[in-house]
């Protein structure tokens, strides 16, 4: 009897995941937009700045509204980073698929594991599953692979890139504390 109940629970869980995965992405162009800005080839932060500055759809904000320190709070297994003490933070606002979005570029101490951060912050995203395959493909093309996952809200990527094998990590997290609502999502590349 326990086996039947366990099997029924498993079937329900798989059904829930399948329906979440079949859900339409609230921002169908989010990952492509993130890749265009944050996943430009190489490790030069100026290339990410140039990608934003060269796109008239994004306007630099006078002051950032994204709470970078809270972007560190997610489901990561290894807490080997902190975004609490940036040396500089710049934010751009615009729209993706007709909805507000923000890009953030930040720098940290050059000796830190990840001295640079490029992030996209979105409001009103229920879960990460509709973005998971495209995010995985984008990070893999940039040179980092999957590290951990906490369905349905969190996917983490990590690896070492470039000739000097510089550490890099990325994630998509749809319960981000960095934004203004409980359905805030962030995608970022820390490198």
Give a written overview of the molecule.
- The chain has 191 residues and is α+β, with helices and mostly antiparallel strands.
- The protein has one domain.
- The protein is 30% helix and 30% strand.
- Strands 1-2-3-4-8-7-6-5 form an eight-stranded antiparallel β-sheet, with helices on one face.
- A hairpin with a 3-residue loop joins strand 5 and strand 6.
- The chain is globular and about 40 Å long.
- The N terminus is likely disordered.
Question: What's the short version?
Answer:
With 191 residues, this protein is α+β, with helices and mostly antiparallel strands.
Key descriptive features of the protein:
disordered N terminus, 30% helix, 8 strands, 191 residues, globular, eight-stranded antiparallel sheet, 30% strand, alpha+beta
What's the helix and strand layout?
Layout: H1 2-22, H2 30-38, H3 45-53, E1 59-60, H4 68-71, E2 88-96, E3 99-107, E4 116-123, H5 129-142, E5 145-150, E6 154-161, E7 166-173, E8 184-190
Helix-and-strand structural type: alpha+beta
Q: Looking across the biggest beta sheet, what order are the strands in?
A: 1-2-3-4-8-7-6-5
Largest sheet: 8 strands, antiparallel
Elements, N to C (H/E): HHHEHEEEHEEEE
> In percent, how much strand structure appears in the residues?
25-35%
Overall number of structural domains: 1
User: What's the pLDDT, averaged over the residues?
Assistant: 87
- Give the overall silhouette: globular
Radius of gyration: 17 Å
**Helix percent band:** 25-40%
N-end to C-end Cα span: 51 Å
């Amino acid at each position: 009897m326990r086996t039947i109940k366990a099997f029924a629970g498993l079937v329900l869980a798989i059904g829930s995941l399948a329906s979440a995965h079949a859900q339409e992405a609230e921002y169908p162009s989010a990952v492509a937009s993130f890749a265009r800005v944050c996943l430009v080839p190489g490790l030069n932060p100026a290339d990410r700045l140039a990608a934003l500055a060269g796109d008239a759809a994004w306007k630099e904000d006078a002051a950032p509204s994204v709470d970078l320190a809270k972007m560190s709070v997610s489901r990561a297994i290894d807490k080997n980073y902190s975004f609490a003490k940036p040396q500089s933070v710049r934010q751009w606002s615009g729209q993706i698929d007709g909805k507000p979005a923000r890009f953030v570029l930040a720098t940290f101490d050059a000796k830190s594991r990840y001295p640079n951060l490029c992030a996209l912050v979105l409001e009103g995203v229920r879960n990460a599953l509709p973005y998971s395959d495209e995010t995985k493909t984008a990070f893999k093309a940039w040179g980092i692979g999957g590290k951990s996952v906490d369905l349905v809200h969190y996917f983490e990527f990590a690896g070492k890139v470039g000739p000097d094998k510089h550490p890099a990590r990325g994630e998509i997290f749809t319960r981000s504390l960095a934004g203004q609502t409980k359905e805030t999502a962030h995608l970022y590349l820390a490198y």
